[in-house]
Design a protein that fits this description.
By secondary structure, the protein is an alpha/beta fold. It has 2 domains: 173 residues, Rossmann fold (3-Layer(aba) Sandwich), CATH 3.40.50; 213 residues, 3-Layer(aba) Sandwich (Rossmann fold). Helix content is 33%, strand content 23%. An 8-stranded mixed sheet has the order 12-11-8-13-16-17-18-19, with helices on both faces. The longest helix is centred in the last third of the chain and has 18 residues. The mean pLDDT is 91. Bound molecules: cytidine-5'-triphosphate (CTP).
């Protein structure tokens, strides 16, 4: 039976439907959602009504279908009403046009206005022809939305409209339904329930009790990652070389472990790795160490010779011992031949995502509050994240992590 007002404990889902042939599958999704007891409010774009009937959705949903910003008998401002009361907005299918309008903040119909008027999680289920799906404009719009925390359930390969076959078919209603359930079960953000292990700072190698070999890392990018991951719902462990962890804003729910040398960082990361869904090696690891003198080296003995030894490559070891489904993110600090070196590092280290810093550029990398990075995925496609705060860069990195975790590691 239909209830006009949702019980406050019943999650309310706004089911947005854009104008594509996959709209017929949303009817099945609606039925699954209603059967599971969710309060579902359908919103169809005007084009969607060319593919499916308003009446069909009204008959199955918890309240009548809405298609317009105007003339709603229950409220004069339907977009803010829906946006504020939604626990989740699912757009299935999300067409290229809908994705573009949402990415650019356009609000020319009820569905896009509702998307702008909400801080509820949003799940997009794109559906379109392969050529459209592969357009850089579509992929860039999706990357923008992911960076803002929007979840995307990628389309599958299969039969498309007009007898074509390829990537672009909307995910099956059962798969969308399963993801909705996971999102709504204790949802705190796109990283809700995920354990994220992050290293930050620069390691220091003792030469003697007074002197160290160090690097210029301030730890800011790693700390920003930890804070943003926590905000996105993750359980975060931060392994840091910084002596005063509270010098940076570390929320109390973040577990902080202090290390100094590359070997200590290695041991802690290897120990904690099996328990983590995602590992981010933001720390700048000193590549060389020495056997330290137990007493201060006196200068009257002349210039000492330091016999340097390699430290363990922690990232490579983490990748070699990764468990199924674990996402591993590495950083690359480069000063020259950036693109070439980064690609070599991506292939060599075997990470899922490489965050590339040209540390010689102004305002970038070590000791700055801002950063500019290139994100290189396994597909070797480069996404540039232009100069912005290290928090905003963290958002871009973690949006990619959330999407990799949703899809499962390759
Ligand atoms: N890294 C690591 N262990 C090391 C050195 C680096 O885990 N001994 C990690 C860093 O945390 C970073 C990535 O590997 O995520 C790349 O670090 P980077 O200093 O850019 O490269 P290196 O591997 O040290 O190689 P090179 O210095 O020759 O560029």
């Amino acid at each position: 039976m239909r209830s006009a007002t949702p019980n406050p404990s019943t999650p309310r889902i706004v089911l947005g439907v854009a104008g594509g042939i996959a709209a017929y599958k949303s009817v099945e999704l609606l039925r699954l959602l209603r059967d599971a007891g969710y309060f579902v409010s359908p919103v169809l774009t005007p084009d969607a009504t060319r593919f499916v009937g308003e009446v069909t959705f009204s008959a199955l949903a918890s309240e009548p279908t809405r298609t317009s910003l105007y003339g709603d008998p229950t409220t004069p401002i339907p977009h803010t009403y829906l946006g504020r009361s939604a626990d989740l907005i699912v757009v299935a299918p999300a067409t290229a046009h809908l994705i573009a309008r949402y990415a650019h903040g356009l609000a020319d119909d009820l569905l896009t206005a509702t998307l702008l008027a909400t801080d509820a999680p949003v799940l997009l289920c794109p559906a379109m022809h392969t050529e459209m799906w592969q357009q850089p404009s579509v992929q860039e719009n999706l990357a923008t939305l992911r960076r803002r925390g929007v979840l995307v359930l990628e389309p599958e390969s299969g039969h498309l409209a007009g007898g074509d076959v390829g990537v672009g078919r909307m995910a099956e209603p059962a798969a969308i339904f399963e993801l909705v359930q996971r999102i709504l079960r204790g949802y705190r953000g796109p990283l809700s329930g995920r354990r994220v292990l992050i290293s930050a700072g620069g390691t220091r190698e003792a030469i003697d009790p007074v002197r160290v070999i160090a690097n210029r890392s301030s730890g800011r990018q790693g700390y920003a990652l930890a804070e943003v991951a926590r905000r996105l719902g993750a359980d975060v462990t931060l392994v840091t070389t910084l002596e005063r962890p509270l010098a940076l804003d570390v929320a109390s729910s973040i577990e902080v472990l202090r290390v100094e040398s590359a070997q200590q960082l290695h041991d802690t990361m290897i120990d904690r790795a099996p328990n983590s869904d995602c590992i981010i090696m933001a720390a700048a690891v000193t590549d060389f160490t020495v056997q330290p003198s137990s007493v201060k080296i006196k200068k009257d003995a002349g210039v000492p010779t330091l016999q340097l030894e390699m430290t363990p490559d922690i990232l490579s070891e983490l990748v070699a011992s990764r468990r199924n489904g674990q996402i591993i993110v590495g950083f690359a600090a480069e000063t020259n031949n950036v693109a070439e070196n980064a690609l070599k590092k991506l292939r060599g280290k075997g990470v899922d995502l490489l965050v590339v810093n040209d540390v010689s550029a102004p305002g970038v990398g070590f000791e700055h509050a801002t950063n500019e990075v290139v994100l290189l995925g396994r597909d070797e496609v480069a996404e540039t994240v232009s100069l912005r705060s290290k928090e905003d860069v963290s958002m871009a990195i973690l949006a990619r992590v959330a999407s990799l975790l949703t899809q499962g590691a390759p």
